[in-house]
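Hey L., structure's done. Input below.
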Amino acid sequence: MKEASKFLLVILTLVTISLTFSSCARNNYTVTSDKDMSAPFDSYKTFAWAKSINSAQSLAYVVNDAILKSAIRDAVAHELAARSYTMNSQNPDVLINFRVFDKPVEMTGYEGYFRDAEYWDTDEVRNGQLGLLPRAAVNTDPGRAGQQYYFDKGTMIVQIVDAKKGVVVWQGYASGLTDGNIFDKNKDHIAKAVSLIFDKYDLVLNE
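Output:
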């Protein structure tokens, strides 16, 4: 009986290690960000959601999932609160939006993917102001209009817009949010990826 118990303990330990390794492998995200060097980040204290976040419209270019949308929104709100941002839907300093891609996407510029009725409205972001940041994480030709972008499958992007200027001042990306061939909708994994994205934002705040 003792030998059987030892054998069972070994098996359970191996299973636990296997599950832990599997979880870590799924959480091996690639995270980076872009910023507007001239933006007054120190003055941003309040935020509001972009109109698309408060609507029943699509969350993503490919994925349309209300539960996933809610999980990302909760995770982003948590990170903003941790940085002392408060909600002000009437007169916010910044607007927050996000989108996910469950399949690889290549594009030239942002207009076709981020200038639509399901993402930024024209009264939220001025024409020609999407993606025009000093450096781009997935940009093969930095600083030039018409740059090429590639989003891997399982990518989440969070964007921050200066509400008064109507320009994107910061955006963070996390890729690797996959569960097999589909977007990983695990709430804990979503929260971890969003946390890693906002770790990049902390670098901006501390510069």
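Residues 4-26, 132-145 have pLDDT under 50 and may be disordered. Residues 22 and 172 are 25 Å apart (CA to CA).

-- N.
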